[in-house]
Specification:
Strand 11, helix 13 and strand 12 form a beta-alpha-beta unit. 37% of the residues lie in helices and 13% in strands. The longest helix has 25 residues. By secondary structure, the chain is α/β, with parallel strands linked by helices.
Length: 482
């Protein structure tokens, strides 16, 4: 085998989230999370938030793909592909069901210890996300979640419980999944657990938005993340703590200077504000104007700036699915699949869900991020949500997914040639799971097909897709056989 462009210890693997795959929503003492109150939906028909649970309503996260009971079977399949790392999240409500308890739930701690041990049995490194779109609903009801500074202590109590319990078994941790989703309205409930109407159902993308809440919540999350980094290093000096961003590569729609400036502003707020705080340890100066023009006031306490400076992350991770273009033209048509805004790029094709496919944008993004922070990088989400056809003989020919991943891996290698320090790659949804944005099973990402459907039918059986064996060869060749 020829020498690989990628480092010899490159961390190949896959990624999931507890709220999208585990199920067992009320098993072994688990409390209700904000994902458990979201109904199913589909592309073009948003899921709903129901603070009062409705009988005879389909809540897909309650069952996920039953990874809670099938994790040994699933990790064995991951090992068969050759995974070096498995990125998964701990459901906060399995450890502290309501969020404000003083003592952790032993059954929850034991479950994740079993998951970690199962990974280690196969030589798979656990990469654990502490908070991945599953804030305890009990804290939403008690203090409207991250709007309140109380959340910092609740989060740190949870961190101490898992950092202490899994010392010596886990090396890599991420604090908040896609923390910068909170600069957009969609991040209020999804990421921060904010819900201002605790009595009436709300369409997921139509919850009334109060930007000051979101940015105050972000400040509390920044402080919590920085204190968690410091705590982790004190508990185990071998712990490496990363951030996690949703990176939306942005291009000016035209070379009109107005479009260029609009793109710069969008890039700063969407892609760099949160990571500037977490990687550089301070609020960037460009946010002063943004806050002023949007009537946002972030309240800080004495000592917060010192905490942020001392709690910077050890490495940077991000999700990458698509790119968008920015324009100052108020009449430009927005792309229907661009959930975070922007207009479509006429040079790119799109997925079944309207997400524009841009492999070269990943190379561009990796270079931009590494130039800015000079920290080791890891792509912890990347993948193609698509309709998969299960044939009568039990096969799934997902060549479109192979093509998508191949092109993105090729561009990762180009970025490494450019000088980027890239640690690893964990494609999203290595096994089919519930879509976070639409709340559906039909949008499939995995190398492993799960027989579960949006009408509530299916036996949850696992079937290998064509991409399963392809990815196995990719890992075995360290990315040289694509």
């Amino acid at each position: 085998m020829a020498d690989s462009v990628l480092r010899k210890d490159f961390l190949w693997g896959g990624a999931t989230a507890a709220n999208q795959c585990e199920g067992a929503w009320d098993v072994d003492g688990k409390g209700i999370s904000v994902s458990d109150i979201c109904t199913g939906g589909r592309f073009g028909a948003s899921k709903r938030i129901t603070p009062v649970l409705e009988p005879d309503t389909f809540y897909p996260s309650r069952e996920g793909v039953r990874h809670y009971e099938k994790f040994r079977e699933d990790i064995k399949l991951f090992a068969e592909m050759g995974f070096k790392v498995y990125r998964f999240s701990i459901a906060w409500t399995r450890i502290f069901p309501n969020g404000d308890e003083t003592e952790p739930n032993e059954k929850g701690l034991k479950h994740y210890e079993e998951v970690i041990d199962e990974c280690l049995k196969y030589g798979i490194e656990p990469l654990i996300t502490l908070s991945h779109y599953e804030v305890p609903f009990g804290l939403t009801k008690k203090c409207n979640s991250w709007v309140s500074r109380e959340m910092i202590d609740y989060f740190l109590r949870y961190c101490r419980a898992v950092f202490t319990r899994y010392k010596g078994k886990v090396k890599y941790w991420l604090t908040f999944n896609e923390i910068n989703s909170s600069v957009e309205p969609m991040g209020a409930l999804l990421n921060q657990g904010i819900l201002n109407d605790l009595e009436n159902p709300t369409v997921f993308m139509e919850q009334p938005d109060y930007p000051n809440q979101r940015f105050q919540g972000l400040h509390h999350m920044f402080v919590a993340s920085a204190l968690a980094v410091k705590m982790a290093h004190e508990i185990d000096p071998n712990y490496q703590i990363g951030n996690m961003m949703i990176y939306m590569a942005c291009y000016p729609f035209t070379c009109n200077p107005d479009d260029v400036l609009k793109n710069q502003e969008r890039n700063r707020v969407m892609n760099y504000f949160c990571s500037d705080v977490q990687c550089r340890g301070a609020y960037p100066s460009y946010m002063n104007r943004y806050f002023k023009e949007n009537n946002i006031t972030v309240k800080m306490e004495e000592g917060d700036e010192k905490i942020l400076k001392e709690g910077t992350v050890d490495f940077y991770t991000f999700s990458y699915y698509m790119s968008v273009c920015q324009t100052a033209d108020p009449n430009a048509k927005r792309g229907e699949g661009n959930i975070l805004g922007g207009v479509n790029n006429p040079y790119l094709k799109a997925s079944d869900w309207g997400w524009q496919i841009d492999p070269k944008g990943l190379r561009y993004s990796l270079n931009e991020i590494y130039d800015r922070y000079q920290l080791p990088l890891m792509v912890v989400e990347n993948g193609l949500g698509a309709y998969d056809e299960l044939k009568e003989d039990g096969t799934i020919e997902d060549d479109y997914r192979i093509d998508y991943l191949r092109q993105h891996i090729e561009q990762m290698k180009e970025a490494v040639k450019d000088g980027v320090d890239l640690m690893g790659y964990t494609p999203w949804g290595c096994i089919d799971l519930v879509s976070a944005s639409t709340g559906e099973y039909e949008k499939r990402y995995g190398f492993i097909y799960v027989r579960r459907y949006d009408d509530g039918t299916g036996d949850f059986a696992r079937l290998k897709k064509k991409s399963f064996d392809w990815y196995k060869k990719v890992i075995a060749s360290n990315g040289e056989e694509l």
